[in-house]
Amino acid sequence: MEQYSVCKEFSFDAAHRLHALTYESKCVNLHGHKYFISLRLFRKELNEGGMIIDFKHFGLFEDYIDDNFDHATIIAEDDMQLRSVCMTLNTRFTTIPFDLTTSENIAKHLFNIAKEYYSDLCDEIEIKVNETPKNYASFRGFMHAQMY
Hints:
By secondary structure, the chain is an alpha/beta fold. It has three helices and six strands, in the order ββαβαβαββ. A six-stranded mixed sheet has the order 4-3-1-2-5-6.
């Protein structure tokens, strides 16, 4: 299947912990990353302007990241202990609806946000989340029922 794509990259600094791991890992401790996010939109046909979208429309997604993730602590929905600490310290945090704040789950959460913004403008969305320059996870999904 042939299709066009556009991609915009974003970054933010944030802390998290994987509090509910079932094996021994340093990642159960609160630690931080310089996250790099790639938002990629796919479309079979270009719009009347000869593009998928104008790059300026990625600003919606960038604002969401800046408002919710940049210099915040990312908390799993059931990590009440870390939420309490952040509230006591009056520090920024954002909660994602998963048991663990893994790159995979952050990618799925950001996919759902991107889908709200861009589902009418593309056929498919992919989010890639880098925790380090060499490690990433991604989530990709179709906006409509596949007709291919």
